[in-house]
Amino acid sequence: MDKVAVVILNWNGEEFLRKFLPTVISNSKNEGVKVWIADNGSTDNSIKYIEAEYPDLGLVKLDKNYGFAGGYNKALKQIDAEYYMILNSDVEVVKDWLTPLIKVLDSDKEIAACMPKIRAYNEKENFEYAGAAGGFIDKYGFPFCRGRVLDRIEQDSGQFDDKTEVFWATGAAFLIRQKLFNEQKGFDEDFFAHMEEIDLCWRLKNSGYKIVCEPASLVYHVGGGTLPNNSSFKLYLNFRNSLYMLYKNLSKKELKPVMFKRRLFDGLAAIKFLVSLQPGNFMAVVKAHKAYYKNIAVLKTKREVLEKKRKKENHDQIYHKSLVIDFFIKGKKLFTDFNF
Question: Is 320 helix (H, G, I), strand (E, B) or coil?
Fold first, then answer.
């Protein structure tokens, strides 16, 4: 068994592999570390490139695109390591980037996963949208980060260079214990893509474990490599998966009131898209709620299983107010404006 398996899930990402894989390999030569490519049924020349240029690299070939969640679940079943490093193909890593993350997990068995600080590849002084310096959510399931609140992204001036417990670690880059990943049955494949890492982290925290951001490790993320930010399908996945995640993980006390208010927020969002002449986004919200109600029986079964494993209900990393109201009405734009 290797100490760490750095696993890059690839789908038609030959361009990213050519650009970033050499640096990942050269900067991941820690003892006991092996780099893997998990190919999600690519139809470009990704496989040919890997086999020609890196014949000794670990390679898992999947027969089709199973999405982020299913792709990683199926690939990781074929990889044996104490820790899995989940890494997007569009991430640039720096020298010794793994060492601080490994030290975090080695130091405390109650820490299930940890992530590096993430800056934007194309604006290297700024935090990156997908994870910045660690993820949080508000009580209605809207995610934000140290360094990024909704679409407001901060410049990194060292203000979040302290190692801290967070609510979620980004799927762009995080290190997780194999044992706990397997105990949680990995990512929820019904998510397909988007927010599955938040769901996994929430399950881990409900089970009594911690998630940490270690800014001593730094990576740079391109972001939006598979689905562009203006994609209505991406919007659909985010709205739908947020509903899935809330229903599965909220405490019994919070479930009904939070889900009711969340539906109101989504209704307002749908109306805004409609009056803004964005019919695709309007339909994305409608379809997300249709999918949620269609799958409520499945979600109920999942929730019942998770409730039996629950050891903790309240988390300090949840903002127990509305991020949306505080951002748009009260003018809170920076992470430090929010008092937990």
Answer: coil
